[in-house]
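Just scan this pair:

***
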Amino acid sequence: IGMGVAVSFAKLLPELGKNGSILRPELFIGKYGVTIIFLLSGLSLKLAELTNAAANLKLNGLIQLMTFGVWPFLVGVPVTKGLEVLAPSLLSKPLLEGLLILTCLPTTINMCIILTSASGGNVATSLCNTVISNMAGIFLTPALLLRFFGKSIELPFFDLVSKLCNKVLLPVAVGQALRATPVKDFYTKHSSFFKRLQEFVLLGIVWNAFCNAFTKSLGLDLGNAITLFTILPLLHIGSLMTFFTFFKSKLLNLSPGEAVAASFCSSHKTLAFGLPLINTIFEGNPNLAAYCAPLMLIHPLQLVLGSLVVPYFKEFTKESQE
């Protein structure tokens, strides 16, 4: 219900919730709200849980393999080549290239952690792998784009690392430090309130994302828009459930919480990292808007679709605990 209200309100008054509006959602939701999420994640996690998650090299390696191996080579290339050969009129070549660029990006940070937490998954696994993915993406995403597009790429490495540290690692570290104070007991006593607060921030992010999507012109005609709105949800929900089937298999011997966290981390693609990256690499390219369009559209879609499977994943993790 909350998702429906958020999307409907965004459609009704998109100017109110877009970045730069009078309400400044990019500040109060995108900055402060997300900082609260990571601070609460640090506050709720035992140090042993974080170290155990970081030490699980097999799981971490598999998640990164899905993100930077399976997505571009087993999803991006076959889908774009297939559409180009079998249905060349469905999408223009720049939009097909935008789809391929999308598959080369790392995972999103805040969404994976919020959805993993809401599903009863292993937040430590999600936190570790979103950080690993975005750090690795600084090198691997340009390398993949060089492989596919042959462009020589230079990125502001230290600026990207600084943003990642300030956005994620600093609030998590503050949360860990607060565990040694009475704040930990206050958090435990009012855990249901803080859980609601996380859900409220999630709805705010969805509202802001859809407001931005509704107000930005991506240069799409109706046919291309319909095609993307058909392909992108199928790609996201298909990858999410395929990865979930893989990670929950008995052969891997993962806990249900780890399987849920791995599924979210492997299936999401980041807007916060991806958009600046695409603008940096393809600056001045006449197809820049088309390259950004798939990412701009999938961002709000994966928020909604991820939220829709939360009850199913929550039931899965709950059953395993009984």
Notes: DSSP finds 15 helices and no strands in the chain. Residues 106 and 134 are 6 Å apart (CA to CA). The longest helix spans residues 288-321.
